[in-house]
Specification:
The chain is of the alpha/beta class. The chain contains 16 helices and 15 strands. The protein has three domains: about 100 residues, Rossmann fold; about 220 residues, TIM Barrel (Alpha-Beta Barrel), CATH 3.20.20; about 110 residues, no CATH class.
Length: about 475
């Protein structure tokens, strides 16, 4: 059985022992070692190297999740794996569960067509720049969208420039002439052809996406599929996804019927009709739609990032397709695989009860303020006692910081974060930004940018351990 050494601080040691003792069934033996500091989050790898003598009689060393410094250097120093654990002690069971049953999120089935809806109004350089950003977020195909009654004089130049940079390109237009021009310029896909415009497929090498004459005319889509199959050419089919609440359910039924009739046909689903036209958080919509795509075995989606509320749609769709593919592949529910789409709420927002926070607070012997949240509200404590409020303004008179501008600024930031987390039901950890999942572009994980309690951000960045 693996033997693991857990390093911690004085305040966290009792809670760490309780959590480890409660892990069932025990998959490893363990030792907890307090290395002579009060707050585990202030641990650094240099401190560990000075205070924990080598060799260590263990198979692995686990540091607190917020420990700063070069963990790889510690691994080399001790000759055994050293790693950071989760940021919250109560997440340790989940941490080891994930280790025991790792899930591969690098694989996916459904390609992402990301549409640049205003391509006719962008010059070629701006189009390429937009395409690079979409690809970085997870797009596989850059879709150039045509606009009604808007000339697209530089369409060919845009297609060729994207192809020159290695992009896969589709052209999306209601104008058959624009589709022809895009195909002749080298577009990989054309969106979209009906049974009446299939003649275009004989003039260009682009793969067509087939749609019905009208969304309800399923027979015309079947006819287009049969015609393309007779030509021996690849194609995709899109029965057209209608927006909520104007035919969405009926359109889902059309997709399902198409899959039953044509088990092998590659299907494209226009999820942008839901993310763009529904004013709701798109992370949840993308999770649902990519789950539906997994059930349909859809080959691709078409999505957009036009509305500000949908500005992370591609990144969210990329996470959603990976999560749903992993769930389908492992025959498990899409739970516990990733928190990327938990943008607004957390599964377990309050890891500590008011009683557990009070027990920790009773051990504090210094003047630095600690901030935690529980269902009861915001807990602020130091050696002078505990304050519990739901409104930061009610806490302010109790802190005595009127003559300490730097500390007042620091506490203002922390209490604002804590209040947002408490109101929404998100995890809050002092000195850490709130985790918004795929909704916010994350900075590189540089632990040296973390802020010590009671200091200003500027001071800490200059004096980080």
């Amino acid at each position: 059985m693996e033997h693991i050494l857990f390093l911690t601080g004085r305040l966290a040691e009792p809670a760490l022992r309780r959590v480890l003792a409660g892990i069932e069934p025990p998959a490893f033996s363990w030792e907890v070692r307090e290395i002579g500091l009060q707050v585990a989050a202030l641990m650094t790898t240099d401190m560990v190297k000075r205070r924990v003598a080598a060799p260590v009689q263990a198979d692995r060393i686990i540091l607190p999740g917020r420990a700063r410094g070069d963990v790889d250097a510690l691994t080399a120093h001790y000759g055994i794996p050293v790693q950071r654990g989760p940021e919250e002690l109560k997440d340790l069971p989940r941490f080891f569960s994930r280790e025991a049953q790792p899930v591969d999120l690098s694989r996916w089935r459904t390609r992402i067509f990301a549409e640049i809806v205003d391509a006719p109004r962008l010059d070629v350089a701006a189009t390429v720049e937009r395409a690079r950003a979409l690809k970085a977020d997870g797009a596989d195909v850059i879709d150039l969208g045509g606009l009604p009654a808007t000339p697209f004089a530089h369409l060919e130049d845009a297609v060729r420039a994207l192809k020159a940079e290695g992009f896969t390109v589709s052209v999306d237009s209601l104008d058959v002439d624009e589709l022809r021009r895009g195909g002749q310029a080298g577009a990989d896909y054309l969106l979209s052809l009906t049974v009446d415009t299939l003649w275009l497929a004989d003039e260009v090498a682009s793969t067509p996406v087939l749609i019905p004459r009208t969304p309800q005319d399923e027979a015309s889509l079947d006819a287009a599929i049969a015609a393309m199959r007779a030509k021996g050419r690849p194609f995709m089919a899109d029965p057209i996804l209608d927006p909520l609440p104007f035919g969405f359910l009926a359109s889902l039924a059309r997709y399902h019927r198409l899959r039953e009739r044509e088990p092998e046909v590659e299907i494209l689903v226009g999820v942008g009709n839901i993310t763009e036209l529904t004013e709701a958080d798109t992370s949840g919509i993308n999770a649902l739609m990519l789950g539906i795509c997994a059930e349909l075995d859809a080959a691709a989606i078409l999505t957009t990032q036009v509305s500000q509320h949908a500005r992370r749609a591609v990144r969210e769709a990329d996470w959603a397709r990976r999560i749903m593919h992993a769930a389908a592949s492992t025959h498990s529910l899409p739970k516990g695989l990733s928190d990327a789409l938990m943008t607004v709420h957390a599964k377990q927002p309050f890891p500590d009860t008011p009683e557990e926070i009070a027990a920790t607070a009773a051990q504090v012997r210094d003047p630095n303020f600690r901030v935690q949240i529980s269902p009861a509200g915001l807990h602020v404590y130091n050696r002078d006692g505990m304050r519990i409020e739901r409104d930061p303004f009610a806490l302010w008179p109790q802190l005595g910081l009127e003559d300490d501008a730097a500390h007042a600024f620091y506490m203002g930031v922390e209490l604002a974060r804590a209040e947002v987390a408490w109101q929404l039901g998100k995890r809050y950890a002092q000195d850490q930004p709130l985790d918004w999942g795929a909704a916010v572009e994350r900075a590189p994980d540089d632990a040296n940018e973390q802020c010590a309690p009671g200091t200003t951000l500027t001071h800490n960045k200059k004096n980080a351990a």
